[in-house]
Specification:
Elements lengths: L1 E5 L3 H13 L3 E5 L2 H8 L6 E5 L7 H10 L8 E5 L4 H9 L4 E4 L4 H17 L3 E4 L2 E4 L4 E4 L2 E2 L4 H12 L4 E3 H8 L9 H14 L6 E4 L3 E4 L4
Parallel strand pairs: 1-2, 1-3, 3-4, 4-5
Antiparallel strand pairs: 6-7, 7-8, 8-9, 10-12, 11-12
């Protein structure tokens, strides 16, 4: 697995990378947000260790952007902070961090937390997420900020399709074929009715199902 470390202190970054590679991980380091975003455009890590105090764009803002973009929202993130105040921890966790480390921390602790987060996120592979909206594929359930959302079978299938392909624009005909099946006799207008009720049931998260004028619908996670 590939672990990336964003740390502006070269000596700390080198120690982190060495400890991770000695444990058997592939590891790569970045000194600031600019270097990180450039590489994220090419590939994605399995986990990111992100320092809060960085030159330019700080770690909190980077985390906010990561969680707000569809292609990076699912990357596990461990925040590293020298402050160690309760506010820093709570802010990072509220923004979607998976764990945090308080500097100075030992390399054994870092590796242990990396393993724990990876185990936890691997166990969550049957979950589809977008901010606080979660579809549990095993339980066939939907929750919004922890509150259960009762959907019909077709509404659930539509939401599952959207969350599986964030950013993809679907025509009404495509949605109809995927959810109702090619052999079903009906009208694409049926899709519009189900989208309307699905948006209502999702509350504030209904905004993520966007109408693509003259085409169809797209699910978009907005920062």
């Amino acid at each position: 697995m590939m672990i990336w470390c964003v740390e502006d202190d070269a000596s700390i970054r080198d120690i982190e990378l060495y400890a991770l590679m000695q444990t058997g991980y592939d590891a790569r380091g970045f000194e600031d947000g600019n270097a990180l975003w450039a590489e994220l455009a090419k590939e994605k890590p399995d986990l990111l260790i992100l320092d809060v105090m960085l030159p330019g764009e700080d770690g909190v803002e980077i985390l906010r952007r990561l969680r707000g973009a569809a292609d990076t929202s699912g990357i596990p993130v461990i925040m590293a902070t020298a402050k160690g105040t309760e506010y820093d921890k709570v802010q990072s966790l509220d923004l979607g961090a998976d764990d945090y480390l308080v500097k100075p921390f030992g390399m054994m602790e870092m590796v242990s937390r990396v393993k724990a987060v990876l185990r936890r996120t691997q166990d969550q592979k049957h979950l589809l997420r977008a901010e606080g909206l979660v579809v549990n594929l095993d339980e066939h359930t939907v929750t919004a900020d922890g509150t259960r959302v009762e959907l019909t079978f077709k509404e659930y299938e539509l939401l599952k399709l959207f969350l599986s392909s964030p950013g993809t624009a679907f025509t009404r005909e495509q949605l109809f074929g995927e959810v109702w099946g090619d052999g079903y006799v009906g009208e694409s207008r049926t899709v519009d009715m189900h989208i309307r009720t699905l948006r209502q049931k999702l509350g504030t998260y209904g905004r993520m199902i966007q109408t693509v004028r003259g085409f169809g619908y797209r699910f978009e996670v907005q920062p």
